[in-house]
Amino acid sequence: MYGKDVLKEYIFDCQIRKLSKRTIKTYKINISLFLDFLKIARSTVNKWISDYNNIKSFKANDNRSDEENELIKLRKENQRLKMENDILKQILSAPCVNY
Questions:
Q1: pLDDT of 1-18, one tens digit each?
Q2: pTM for the model
Q3: CA–CA separation, 16 and 14 (whole Å)
Q4: How far is CA 78 from the centre of its chain?
Q5: What is the rounded CA–CA span in Å between residue 78 and residue 72?
Q6: What's the start-to-end Cα distance of the chain, in Å?
Q7: ∠ Cα 89 91 96 (to 5°)
Q8: Coil/strand/helix, residue 65
Q9: Burial (CB count within 10 angstroms: exposed 0-12, middle 13-18, buried 19+), residue 70
Q10: Which value, to the nearest 10 degrees, does the dihedral of the CA atoms of residues 51, 54, 56, 60 take?
Q11: Where are the domains of the chain?
């Protein structure tokens, strides 16, 4: 279901609730103005709706592929290993002090 379809469904729901044509028109205008205010493209809204319809979640983790999750995991591990490596380099390069 995409933006146009959602809007049609919403308008249909308004008609079933027997809202006046003027009220429905105002709702349409307000929704468009709100999206324009947020500077959200209709394609973005359509993607959100599509993601939600496929996964039933707006959480980024739920909408990532297994490959994307694996890549994120590997990048975090790589960053951790680099930090450990830097620490070891600093320890080994420090002058030895005998007490």
A1: 455 666 677 777 778 888
A2: 0.41
A3: 5
A4: 24
A5: 10
A6: 74
A7: 130
A8: coil
A9: exposed
A10: -40
A11: 1-59, 64-94
